Amino acid sequence: MDKTQLQGLKVMSPGPTQINKTVLNALSEAYTNPDLDPKFVVYYKETCDYFNRMIQNDGETFLLTGEGILGLEAACASFIEEGDRVLTISNGIFGKGFEDFSKLYGAKTALFEGDPRQGIDLEALEMFILNQGPFKLATVVHCETPSGLTNPIKEIGRLLRKYNILSVVDSVSAIGGEEMDMASWELDVVLCASQKAISAPVGLTTVSLSKRALQVLKERQSPVRGFYNNLKLWLDYEEKQWFAYTQPIHLVVAFRTALEQMELETSLKNHKALAEAVRLSFTKAGLTLFAKSHYANTVTTVMLPEGLDFSKLQDRLKTVHKTLIGGGFDFLENKIFRIGHMGQNATFEDLYDLLVALDECFNAFEVPLEASLSTSFEALMR
Ligand SMILES: *Cc1c(COP(=O)(O)O)cnc(C)c1O
After folding, report:
1. Helix or strand or coil: residue 324?
2. What is the DSSP string of 120-161?
3. Which residues on adjacent β-strands are paired with residue 178?
């Protein structure tokens, strides 16, 4: 198989998202040696600071080489010490998955399980903390990508701070498409990755630490289990002009290019308007969204109509329409389909084309719709 066989499909899944030409072009140039040229350290630091301002963090951001999961694991490895009590706040697959990482690094965990179809209930969470606390740290997911809902992170952040619990937030599929104000929401550790709403190539994860989190990390006594996971190695890279491993300079330049081309205010408004119109188009057609409230602006999860297999839908989208969408995994396997309208996927044209394709597929599979998806979408966005 040659690489052309990996091309030709329009990727409308909830990450990795489409990457535009400006960002792709950044990958095809020659750059300096990041190990030997101090200019790279300056460029790296500026890139981290740029991201830091975007999410309103008054601490530091580090860029790690690895896909989004690395950030989640590094946060657990670096902030959890043997026997620490950790609260897992879960109402979805990523939320629950965090518990495994916490356990792996020695935590005694307590699991708060919310309704998988709605955002976390703050009163219930506070009761849980009062009954089961105290906790050193809590993990929570901003946007549960598999189910298409966002949690009220602002309120959760402030609640956790009230009980002096360090917050670790997976915002991998939210930042860039959902508001993030780390300092005023009192969040401590916020994680993101390059390939979702930022629309840069897969391979970088961002770890943003509040001043408080930086202090906790500096004061950690026991050694961090792991090397790639050890955020302490990043604390003095600038001073020492040294990174723990060779930095992927092309990925860093591409990531920075993607950040610079994003106008955040416009991007947030755009994500919101498109997401609302996508959701309404599905409900007008008589289909059911998986989320019952707290809908995500970056991804929409729709229940598969009775009797329609996801693999059939995906096959037809691929062969007839040269388009790829997301499906369900874990408890959502073959129950839902997902559309990623984040980053470069968040355009009227791409979403309209996708809905035209879905109209055709449902027609071909004799799934009756109460209204055409694309017609509704077009009317709503006019
Ligand atoms: C994508 C994503 C990650 C990173 O994991 P993948 O292996 O790319 O799925 C982590 N958390 C969330 C919420 C994500 O959407």
Report:
1. strand
2. PPHHHHHHHHHHH---SEEEEESEETTTTEE--HHHHHHHHH
3. 175
Quick one: what percent of the chain has pLDDT higher than 70? 100
* Three-state DSSP class for residue 190: strand
Pairing of strands 137-141, 143-144: unpaired
The torsion angle over the Cα atoms of residues 159, 163, 169 and 174, rounded to 10 degrees, is 10
Query: Other CB atoms closer than 10 Å to residue 339's CB: what's the count?
Result: 24
Q: Which of 148, 68, 133, 137 is nearest to 102 (CA)?
A: 137
Q: Return the ligand 1 atom nearest residue 173 CA.
A: 15
Which atom, in ligand 1's list, is nearest to the CA of 171? Answer: 13
* The two three-digit tokens of residue 17, written as one number: 């998202």
The answer to whether 217 and 78 have CB atoms below 8 angstroms apart is yes
pLDDT in tens, 222-240: 999 999 999 999 999 999 9
Confidence class for position 114, pLDDT limits 50, 70, 90: very high
Q: Residue of the nearest CA to atom 8 in ligand 1?
A: 68
pLDDT in tens, 126-136: 999 999 999 99
Q: How many Å lie between the centroid of ligand 1 and the Cα of residue 366?
A: 34
Which residue's CA is minimally distant from atom 7 of ligand 1? 69
Does the beta carbon of 69 lie inside 6 Å of ligand 1? yes
Q: Give the C-alpha separation, 206 to 356, whole Å.
A: 36
Q: Which two tokens stand for residue 364?
A: 């071909």
Ligand 1 proximity of 141 Cβ (cutoff 6 Å): yes
**10 DSSP β-pair partners:** 323
Length of the chain in terms of residues written = 382
With tokens 């009761």, the residue in question is 127
d(CA 333, CA 79): 33
Question: What is the enclosing helix (H) or strand (E) of 167?
Answer: strand 166-170
